[in-house]
Design a protein that fits this description.
about 55% helix, 8 helices, alpha+beta, 2 domains, about 10% strand, single chain, Glutathione S-transferase Yfyf (Class Pi), Chain A, domain 2, 4-stranded mixed beta sheet, Glutaredoxin, globular
């Protein structure tokens, strides 16, 4: 069985959980606190980063590599796109949410507000949090722009683009940091993803001492 080495608030780990579940692939979760840099973990991935997929045949490290690996080894249903043009668009959006969104929003907000509290990393950087809170509006506006032109982010079918974007927002939503009231189009799109059965295990995860807001598990917000 596949083992997914993850952390509850690692957005790309959440994306892999959703991808595996959407494909009906059995997997086991193994929690890891990457900041502890355990030797056993570093032997699996010297970069010290999550997520990791561990199989008898070896380890696949890194979000993009793992997402592509799952698509190549389990093609049904196809979540990377049904033709070359859509696959290019999905990959473009994957980079947007795995790299740009992560750097501009998730790390400054969740990293400072929540992860530092968990790992004892010192007081949060209020300037970074403020910047992340400003940046999220542009990203939510972009989701709304896409949804005004498409049924899903990359086209007429749900793909990894939707899964990865929703995973990022779910982490921020856990921290109560998504201004849904100001972005109803993005909220409607997220509600569609959030109501899928594959999403419910994510919503059930709770960090002791740091509960999510009440609306977090409400499928109708």
């Amino acid at each position: 069985m596949i083992v997914l080495v993850h952390h509850v608030l690692c957005a790309s780990s959440r994306a892999l959980r959703l991808q595996l579940s959407e494909k009906g692939i059995a997997f086991e979760l193994r929690a890891e606190r990457p900041w502890e840099r355990r030797p056993e973990f570093l032997r699996l991935n010297p970069a010290g980063e999550l997520p990791l997929l561990v199989e008898d045949e070896g380890v696949v490290a890194g979000a993009m590599a793992a997402l592509e690996f799952v698509e190549e080894t389990h093609s049904d249903p196809p979540l990377l796109g049904r033709d070359a043009r859509q696959r290019a668009e999905v990959r473009r959006l994957l980079h947007w949410f795995l790299a740009k969104f992560e750097a501009e929003v998730t790390i400054p907000v969740v990293g400072e507000k929540v992860i530092k509290r968990i790992n004892g990393g010192g007081p949060p950087n209020s300037r970074a949090i403020s910047a992340g809170r400003q940046n999220i509006h542009m990203h939510l506006d972009y989701i709304a722009w896409l949804m005004d032109r498409r049924r899903w982010l990359s086209g007429e079918s749900m793909t990894l683009a939707d899964i990865v974007a929703a995973a990022q927002l779910s982490v921020l939503d856990y921290a109560g940091e998504v201004p849904w009231v100001k972005h109803p189009e993005a909220k409607d799109w997220y509600a569609r993803i959030k109501s899928r059965p594959t999403f419910r295990p994510l919503l059930a995860d709770v960090i002791p001492g740091i509960p999510p807001p009440k609306h977090y598990t409400d499928l109708d917000f």
